[in-house]
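Re: that chain you flagged

S.,

Sorry for the slow reply, it's been a week of failed gels. I finally had a moment to sit down with the sequence you sent. For the record, here it is as I used it:
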Amino acid sequence: MLRLFYILCAVALMATADAPERFAWSETRALQWSDFKGSPGTLDGWAASSSTGMSQGYATNGQGFLDKNSITVTAHFYPEYSWVRHKEKTKHLLAHEQTHFDITEVYARKLQARIAAYNFTENGLEEIKAIYQEVEQERIATQKLFDKESNHSIDHMKELQWELRVARWLDGNFEE
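Prediction finished late last night. Pasting the structure tokens below so you have them in one place:
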């Protein structure tokens, strides 16, 4: 029995060893430059890049129906895949990168809301994947629009407008 325990512990350690470092979005913890642990690509012309994404967890009842009470959605930041050029570390640029992370949190909340409103069938796993893909495409499009309109943080007025918009979204106000 003890041998089985050691085997299970070793398998658990191996499974987590390959997982990239990540942390969840929090309204009480803003990004810091020390969170950016990746290396910039030599061909990238940007000053910084944030790697963010959404994860979801759920359980089924064995017949394919999802247990809505078990569903979790989390916005994550991936330090190993996020980077900044040392000479570019400014408060303004860090605020831009924080807005990217905030946008991911907005879409994590949208995903959670869409899941909560959906009436799943016995094909729940396929249905939740489809909902995730739809929201993920919207998130990616919004991230691109943010960079385009703010000119990758160069247009300070557009940047401020986006920061205010995303703050309203985080407060639950999606009216434009």
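What I noticed first: The helical segments are 2-17, 91-117, 124-150, 156-170.

Talk soon,
D.
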